[in-house]
Fold Acyl-CoA thioesterase II.
Amino acid sequence: MTNPAERLVDLLDLERIELDIFRGRSPDESLQRVFGGQVAGQALVAAGRTTDGQRPVHSLHAYFLRPGRPGVPIVYQVERIRDGRSFTTRRVVAIQQGRTIFNLTASFHSPEPGIEQQLPMPDVPGPEGLPTLADEVRAHLGTLPEAFARMERRQPFDIRYVERLRWTDEELKGTEPRSAVWMRAVGALGDDPLVHTCALTYASDMMLLDAVRVPVEPLWGPRGFDMASLDHAMWFHRPFRTDEWFLYEQESPVATGGRGLARGRIYDRAGRLLVSVVQEGLFRPLRPAEGAADDG
């Protein structure tokens, strides 16, 4: 399989090993910890597969408890909390090598009519005229480093920053803690709404904490902080396709005490607010010659 979007769909296709127990793959990549969006997306797949499929997920709340190890399978145990007339609730625990690394509660709701209002989408240029991330790196460095090229080949999403990347401390002066990107899967994801929801859950963890970093250090290049997602919450407002362009607007209202809070809003091309996201992350300055910490 060479298409990264197909690999993402395959990654989200869990093995059912018991009625409410699933096993997910964890790619053996050169990462210090399993990507949090992968665990959240797989956990939501596990939750969704224990429902009747008629109620879309409307919210999830999750905690990242321990770093997962790349290359080691993850087992997802689902608890059926409630099956009501309008709502279904599931709790999922992710276990790797006998230790709980993540838990998630997801709620599913039968669609029904109601009031319609939302904050407007910001006025930003469309994605077609914006450079790809690889183009921005190549323009800044004059070439595309092999490590970045390998990452780009595995990347399941096309990512285009609305504002040009800042590469120096001088460029960061006066920068507000905000960021916005256009994203879409690099290939078709099929027609299963749960796959699109879980793929977007995967994508939502990719760069939300960028909003915290923007005033402090360049987003691409050597990092001065050990960063790790601590918790993650999402509210799904409307149906969507993750293989079509969506705008991911992010802001950080506060960073203090070694943690940073980030909020995200996801819009489609028509300006409809699709998803709201909130995440808190760990931010610890790295000491010289120090790698990222193993645990929070």
